[in-house]
């Protein structure tokens, strides 16, 4: 009997060991960071004073973003935006549009007095996400729920988080409260139309945070750290513009997430997904997911050193050997029904997120290593445009993340931009509304200590026209060259004779418009 018991025990031992190991893997593990009280916006610098001019590469990136959004001819739509298939995967329209908008914002913060181009790109990305084809996937997830087909009423933060962040960025950088006054209309059919303002989306998100443990679900019952960053970025932007206060909701989510979402298996630092009902979290992680998590956690994190601590953990999980070889990029779409299968994410997309995150977390050496690999294999530049020539499914998102990394390396800081948006009275001063030709490079657009507009443009040997706002009737215009300029008061346009790169200073007249 004793011998039988011994054999039974010996036979069960491996099974028990496996159960224990799996149990430990599925237990919650803390990340090496902590939630603190959200600091005041005034702790961040006034970044709009004399920001570094945009480089040629940054202007080329900005022009490419405009080409594939607000300037894209209808005949070229499919080439860039026929992505995502059923809209369930990481390459879906909602993500590609959001990433391009974020890149435009990060570049646009360096020319804060040039509101026109950034506003147009952001408006276009909001419109793309608002189209039904970008959120039609809800029918496969929530068709039986009482709130269907409202895509924003509950969960679905993988959609609402990006929508509200783009809307908030639009107002933060343009001064135009369009989306908080009129909102966006989301049309399922003639009988089902839903209007959401930015603050309503924020309040709906906050209600779900207060009602649960802190996270808002993406797919039914599933909570992802990456997607939950975007409402909190939006909260900081809205607070900075004077709309409300959501610090308590941010603290609740941050405290819960940091306490248990450290990966214990796989190739990443953050657990991919938490199952709300069972309370279990998938133990594995993914490097690209880590990059996404940190890139957009850093701007709203309560502790400014949190992201740097977490980056050290993320960096250890990167497969650096993979960067010693040429990439194998899947040329065609591979359909998937979830957002967490690492097989479906090509190396270029993974590295683009990691490069941007490395910049956000202050690891410039790692960022340069990642950026060098991307540029070597994918960088394309022609006709004053720059992008990453990956296959269509990932081209916009990978390029946009590369642009975010590029802009951060040259002076764009995400945390100040998000936590301390432009003062609302900044838009009462003189501004550059538009340029003609529309793709005229604008390297600098800010205001000096006297409130005059400082511009640096490149006419590329042609004449140009600059439409200005808040100049008064007779602005004083000076340049650093002998190029002729003429003010047209009727159209509020400054006409510049053929020129190359030049600096223009415009001082508003005392007479008001």
What does this protein structure show overall?
By secondary structure, the chain is α+β, with helices and mostly antiparallel strands. It is built from 18 helices and 14 strands. The chain has helices at 2-26, 56-67, 77-81, 93-108, 115-130, 132-135, 139-142, 157-174, 178-181, 198-211, 225-240, 247-258, 287-297, 306-317, 347-360, 364-378, 392-409, 414-419; strands at 184-189, 192-196, 222-223, 265-266, 274-275, 284-285, 379-382, 385-388, 431-436, 442-447, 453-469, 476-479, 485-488, 493-507. Strands 9, 10, 11, 12, 13 and 14 form a six-stranded antiparallel beta sheet that branches. A hairpin with a 4-residue loop joins strand 13 (485-488) and strand 14. Helix 13 runs parallel beside helix 15. The longest helix is centred in the first third of the chain and has 25 residues, at 2-26. The protein is globular and about 70 Å long. The chain starts with a helix and ends in a 6-residue tail after the last strand.
Key phrases:
513 residues, two-stranded antiparallel ribbon, 14 strands, 43% helix, globular
Mean pLDDT: 92
Oligomer: single chain
Q: What is the 3D form?
A: globular
Number of helices: 18
Low-confidence stretches: 1-10, 12-25, 331-340
Give the tally of β-strands: 14
Structural class based on helices, strands and sheet pairing: alpha+beta
Helix content: 40-55%
Query: What is the C-alpha radius of gyration, as a whole number of Å?
Result: 24 Å
The end-to-end distance, rounded to whole angstroms, is 101 Å
Major sheet characteristics? 6 strands, antiparallel
Strand content: 15-25%
């Amino acid at each position: 009997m004793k011998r039988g018991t011994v054999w039974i025990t010996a036979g069960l031992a491996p099974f028990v060991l496996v159960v224990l190991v799996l149990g430990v893997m599925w237990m919650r593990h803390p990340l090496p960071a902590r939630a603190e009280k959200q600091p005041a916006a005034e702790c961040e610098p006034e970044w709009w004073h004399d920001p570094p001019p945009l480089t040629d590469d940054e202007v080329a990136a900005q022009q490419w973003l405009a080409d594939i959004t607000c300037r894209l001819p209808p005949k070229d739509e499919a080439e860039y935006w026929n992505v995502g298939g059923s809209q369930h995967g990481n390459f879906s329209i909602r993500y590609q549009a959001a990433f391009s908008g974020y890149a435009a914002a990060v570049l646009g913060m360096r020319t804060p007095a040039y509101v026109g181009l950034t506003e147009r790109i952001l408006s276009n990305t909001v419109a793309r996400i608002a189209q039904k084809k970008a959120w039609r996937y809800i029918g496969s997830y929530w068709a039986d729920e009482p709130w269907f087909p409202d895509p924003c009423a509950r969960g679905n933060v993988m959609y609402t988080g990006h929508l509200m962040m783009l809307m908030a960025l639009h107002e933060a950088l343009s001064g135009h409260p369009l989306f908080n006054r009129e909102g966006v209309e989301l049309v399922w059919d003639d009988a089902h139309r839903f209007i959401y303002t930015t603050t309503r989306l924020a309040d709906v998100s906050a209600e779900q945070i207060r009602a649960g443990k802190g996270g808002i679900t993406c797919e039914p019952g599933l909570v992802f750290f990456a997607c939950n960053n975007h409402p909190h970025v939006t909260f900081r932007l809205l607070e900075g513009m004077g709309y409300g206060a959501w610090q308590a909701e941010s603290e609740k989510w941050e405290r819960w997430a940091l306490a248990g979402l450290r990966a214990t298996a796989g190739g990443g630092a953050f657990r991919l997904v938490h199952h709300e009902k069972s309370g279990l979290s998938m133990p594995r992680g993914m490097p690209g997911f880590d990059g996404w998590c940190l890139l957009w956690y850093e701007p709203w994190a309560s502790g400014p050193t949190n992201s740097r601590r977490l980056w050290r953990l993320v960096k250890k999980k990167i497969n650096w050997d993979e960067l010693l070889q040429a990439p194998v990029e899947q040329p065609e779409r591979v359909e998937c029904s979830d957002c967490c299968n690492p097989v479906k994410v090509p190396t270029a997309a993974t590295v683009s997120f990691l490069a941007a995150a490395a910049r956000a977390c202050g690891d410039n050496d790692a960022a340069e290593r990642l950026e060098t690999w991307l540029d070597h294999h994918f960088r394309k530049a022609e006709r004053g445009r720059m992008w990453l020539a990956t296959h269509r499914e990932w081209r916009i998102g990978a390029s946009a993340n590369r642009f975010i990394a590029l802009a951060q390396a040259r002076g764009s800081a995400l945390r100040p931009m998000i936590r301390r948006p432009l003062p609302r009275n900044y838009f009462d001063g003189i501004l550059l509304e538009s340029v003609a030709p529309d793709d005229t490079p604008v390297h600098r657009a800010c205001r000096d200590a006297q409130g005059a507009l400082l511009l640096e443009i490149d006419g590329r040997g042609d004449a140009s026209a600059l439409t200005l706002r808040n100049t008064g009737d007779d602005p004083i215009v000076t340049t650093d060259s002998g190029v002729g300029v003429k003010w047209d008061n009727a159209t509020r346009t400054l006409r510049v004779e053929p020129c190359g790169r030049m600096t223009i200073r415009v001082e508003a007249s005392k007479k008001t418009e």
